[in-house]
Design brief:
mainly beta; SH3 type barrels; Porin; 8-stranded antiparallel beta barrel; 5-stranded antiparallel sheet; 2 helices
Length: 247
């Protein structure tokens, strides 16, 4: 019963994380945008245009593009979007780090210490987006094991803050509540996990170069939550923002 309660609590946390990452379109806020505000409209594709107005059912904006015959001649067109087709509207420029990652691919390794203050070594990979899967090999008390873990990846804050029209490097911090299972020699079995991850990024993610990251984790075995371990991971990550590559 005790283990079931732990699992139910963690599942509830993951569901809450999923709800937190899902963002509804605030149409009343869209209608209040000032005319001539540059926006990005996401339907099945992403369009940058100049906002004109929004009614209860439609959004109107102006789109400018250069004519291929002349770099000095711009074509102007009026665009109309049906509200039902719009997934998201945001001002441009925009802090993409506010939203969950669309994709992350990472490899890393590090060290740890267990409840008896014995050293632990491990290495593994992380794959996912708003939710991630961690696959790791480790050695605990001289015995090899393999763990698989699922976690929510929830954006918290960044340092320094976003500045319009400036490309700067920043640290983005994510919380990662999760649940996993370790098989092999030594302790553990099923466990819950609490992680904090910091990734070094820039405001332009289109180049998609690998970014360094560091992650701290505390694992709590179902059978003996106080006999877990503390882990520190260093690695490289391919981090793709929610809107990168959609244009």
């Amino acid at each position: 019963m005790k283990n079931q309660r732990i699992v139910l609590v963690l599942v509830a946390l993951l569901m809450a994380a999923s709800a937190a990452t899902a963002q509804n379109l605030d149409w009343e806020a869209v209608k209040k945008l000032a005319p001539n505000t540059w926006i990005s409209v996401e339907t099945q594709k992403q369009t940058h245009c100049e906002f004109q107005k929004a009614t209860d059912e439609r959004l109107y904006c102006e789109f400018y593009s250069e004519d291929w015959l002349s770099a000095f001649h711009q074509r102007h067109s009026n665009l109309v979007f049906n509200r039902a087709e719009i997934r998201k509207v945001r001002k441009v420029p925009y802090d993409d780090s506010k939203e969950p990652l669309a994709l992350l691919l990472a490899a890393g390794g590090g060290g740890a210490w267990d409840s008896a203050h014995q050293p632990v070594a491990f290495a593994g990979v992380k794959v996912g987006g708003p939710f991630s899967i961690d696959l790791q090999y480790d050695r605990i008390k001289g015995k090899s094991g393999f763990s698989a873990e699922s976690s929510a990846v929830m954006p918290l804050f960044r340092v320094p803050s976003f500045r319009e029209n400036k490309e700067i490097k920043f640290l983005k911090v994510y919380a990662e509540p999760g649940i996993g299972y370790r098989a092999g020699g030594g302790p553990f079995g099923g466990y819950t996990s609490a992680k904090v991850m910091a990734v070094l990024l820039t405001d332009t993610w289109s180049d998609k170069w690998a970014a360094p990251y560091v992650e701290y984790q505390r694992r709590f075995p179902f059978e003996s939550p106080l006999q877990g371990d503390n882990r520190l991971t260093f690695g490289m990550m391919l981090a793709v923002c929610a809107h990168c590559g959609l244009d």
